[in-house]
Amino acid sequence: MHHLALTPEDNAALTPMLAELAAAYDTIENPELIRRAPVLAKALPSHLLSFLEEFRLGEPSALCLVSGLDVDEAELGPTPGHWRDSQFDSPAFRQEIFFLLCASALGDVFGWATQQDGRIMHDVLPIKGHEHYEIGSNSLQHLSWHTEDAFHPCRGDYVALMCLKNPDAVETVVSAVPDMDWTGIDVDALFEPEFTVMPDNSHQPDPGQESSGDPRIDKLRERSFRLIQEWNENPPRRPLLFGDRSDPYMALDPYHMDPSTWPERSRLAFKRLCEEIEKAMKDVVLRPGDLVFIDNFRAVHGRKSFRARYDGSDRWLKRLNITRNLRGSRAWRPAADDRVIY
């Protein structure tokens, strides 16, 4: 793991900068804050920026951990009961800004019209009634390991998590390409476009989703959900591996894959790949003040089950999607500087 621990001196330097930015903006979703984030990130400690740049370009690991950010859990107050309750007057606004700046040193943050009302920064927390859903807000069911948004051509290069609370030491699970034994895997078969990945449940229509108030945006959102339905009914065939065959990138989500229509060689190669991913799986316990950046091309991730209390003390993370090629999704976004994929 690529790891940097912030020092007391780092936190002392960060505190006034983050407080000044928190006073200048109303919410982490402020478009001007998100637009300026790559420039504002240059004020981060130089050794932190160098550390993130090495992860971005050198690929020394599939997992990058920044630990030690000051988090006052008493100041945070109770874990929200739902992500809809957390956007405004956030008690974690300073930490959110730090998270955004670090992410913006790696690439461009973006959101999905089909997830959390198109927000850029998501909340990851247990929601009552979701205990057994295959979705990040579940609790009693494991969140199966996966590539984030594996089904979509605009999936991010990195998925990032910042821990605010984790009182039960719930484990995030990660399996990375460098830790796997590729000698017994049919890599050539996995590079062939014979596989199908359906959209995951987090992109399904939310009955409680409200109109944006902009007919154009609502129309684009409806188009997104229609496309999700089409991909569920008739998913396009694509490879599971890409890039360098000796050190491949991968994109898969077995819970949302149906091998029944694949060629026999493809099914066997997929089965062997999944077995090796399971063997290489490691537990990562995030603690308050930890930021982890998972290389979405080189690792899969999931989460072990836990019992939520719904009393304000439950696990609470923030999540960001990051791309190194924002232009690659231009056909899916309403404007060049819009960060939401429709």
UniProtKB/TrEMBL annotation:
SUPFAM superfamilies per the UniProt record, alphabetical: Clavaminate synthase-like (SSF51197)
Region of interest (Disordered), ranges: 197-218
Stretches of the chain forming a coiled coil according to its record: none
Taxonomic superkingdom: Bacteria
Domain TauD/TfdA-like residue range list: 216-320
Keyword terms of this UniProt record: Iron, Metal-binding, Oxidoreductase
Biased amino acid composition, Polar residues: 199-212
Pfam families membership: TauD
Family statement drawn from the similarity comment of this UniProt entry: Belongs to the clavaminate synthase family.
Name of the protein described by the UniProt record: Arginine beta-hydroxylase, Fe(II)/alpha-ketoglutarate-dependent
Source organism per UniProt: Streptomyces composti
Chain's gene name: vioC
